[in-house]
Amino acid sequence: MKQQKPESNRRDFIKTASAATAVAGIAPFAIGRSKGQRALETVNLGVVGTGGRGAGACNDSLTINDNVRLIAMGNLRPEKAAEKRDILKQAHGDKVQVEDHNIFGGLEAYEAIIDHPDVDCVLLTTSPGFRPWHVERAVNAGKHVFAEKPVCLDPAGWHACKRASDKAKEQGTAIVTGTQYRRQTNYVEAVDHINNGMIGDPLAATARYCSTGIWYRPREENMTDAEYQLRNWMHFIWLSGDQICEQAVHNIDLMNWIFGNPEVCYTTGGRFTRPDDSEMWDQMSVDYLYPGNRLVSFKCRQVPGTKSDADNVIYGSKGIAYIRAINGGTRIVDRTGKELYVADGNIGAAYRQEHKDLVDSIVSGDPIVELMPTADSSLTAAMGRMSAYSGQPVTWDFATKESKLDTFKHGITADQSIESPGAAIPGKWPLT
Ligand SMILES: NC(=O)c1ccc[n+]([C@@H]2O[C@H](COP(=O)([O-])OP(=O)(O)OC[C@H]3O[C@@H](n4cnc5c(N)ncnc54)[C@H](O)[C@@H]3O)[C@@H](O)[C@H]2O)c1
Q: What is the pLDDT at residue 15?
């Protein structure tokens, strides 16, 4: 699997679109779409990060789209990418055309995928710390992008997303993000009903991502600090952003979808059960104040033996909307309890729909650029963590205009020594 410069045979496939056509499917992001990019008949995919979700995203795109080919794969360990290639090939046959020389390994793999002349669209599915920098690099290379959530973990990453979003709109390339609930029918319809007044004025909400625990990948003999942290990434804040960013951003994204971006947040929390070298907290409880004095009480927790709850409840002046995660469905009632709307959930369909919308938008020449709503939700989650760690309230203005926080280890190499700052202690951890 050594790296070599790929040769292009892609030019034959590129056609100039005569007219942009409307994108089929749900379009829940209230944002503009850039126009003018040359359309393609077949979209060649390259993936960076072939773990659980990377392979899942490839499978979703190959399942829902007739006109895609997977042609290049990058992963820290290239042999793992090759394993995923073989599994995907069994399921999708000729749509998977990843030759051995188009499997790339190590921390530079992302550049080989992004710069590959035959790759039209990159799926960015590594651990989240890399995301804003990979997105910006891919957009600067003129590539269409699928970016898993969260798309940033701190204000510096949010600014990188902003630059990438502006550039993608200007040049006419697509960015679709892995906030699949924005395409899940029972979520989309519930938000439409809320916007159309079914529960009256939405006044407040509770949102929770509470679960029993998460994986921990112990250090193996002879691993450098960088190798260990990259593998056990969930537990290092520069790579995961803590649970609130990595996982609970889904609920926060729904809150922002309904209420806009928050003005300020105030967080408490702590840790009792994490392994000693984990930088993560066990739980956080955040009050987010949204415009119009509307309060969202948000909680996340990962503690073995506790009750899981990943649901959202929106309290309006005339009714209440229960929007449950995964396949839990939606139920909206009025204040007397009379049922107004009920729908099942189908998260699998939503995972696939995001890839259909992305590819349709590329082929039609009317590319979707939806990075900023997801960047805003990702920053909202990061604000919750910044408030938790520092013990200070954090405003949207501070996060977007003043903070210089950049948690990513730019220029990281596999043999690098990394001193962990340990778990944050409020009152001692600076708000920067
Ligand atoms: N939308 C969803 O519901 C959903 C579900 C699961 C995961 N995710 C997101 O997907 C992302 C990946 O999660 P996962 O569960 O697949 O993790 P994972 O640990 O299974 O896979 C991550 C992969 O990325 C590779 N990688 C890491 N850094 C890399 C780099 N710089 N270059 C190349 N490869 C690199 C690793 O080798 C690993 O194979 C995370 O952001 C996570 O939050 C989203």
A: 29
- Residue 55's closest CA among 103, 78, 88, 82? 88
- Alpha carbons 164 and 410: distance in angstroms, whole number: 18
Q: Are residues 299 and 364 in the same domain?
A: no
Counting Cβ atoms within 10 Å, is residue 107 exposed (0-12), middle (13-18) or buried (19+)? middle
Which ligand 1 atom is the nearest neighbour of the CA of 234?
19
The domain tally of the chain equals: 2
Ligand 1 contacts CB of residue 51 (under 6 A): yes
Domain containing residue 268: 184-346+378-402
CB-facing half-sphere around the CA of 429: CA atoms within 13 A: 16
3-state secondary structure 16-71: CCCCCCCCCCCCCCCCCECCCCCCECCEEEEEECCCHHHHHHHHHHHHHCCCEEEE
My answer on whether 108 and 212 are in the same domain is no
Q: How confident is the model at residue 411 (pLDDT cuts 50, 70, 90)?
A: very high
**pLDDT tens digit sequence for 277-306:** 999 999 999 999 999 999 999 999 999 999
10 pLDDT above the threshold of 70:
no
Pocket residue to mutate for ligand 1, from 148, 216, 355, most atoms within 8 A of Cβ: 148
Which of the listed residues 3, 47, 53, 183 should we mutate to test ligand 1's pocket, taking the one with most ligand atoms within 8 A of CB? Answer: 53
Tell me if residue 374 falls in helix, strand or coil: helix
* Whether the Cβ atoms of residue 189 and residue 231 lie closer than 8 Å to each other: no
Tell if the pTM clears 0.90, that is, is over it: yes
**What tokens does 350 get?**
């939503």
Task: Name the token pair of 168.
Answer: 């993608």
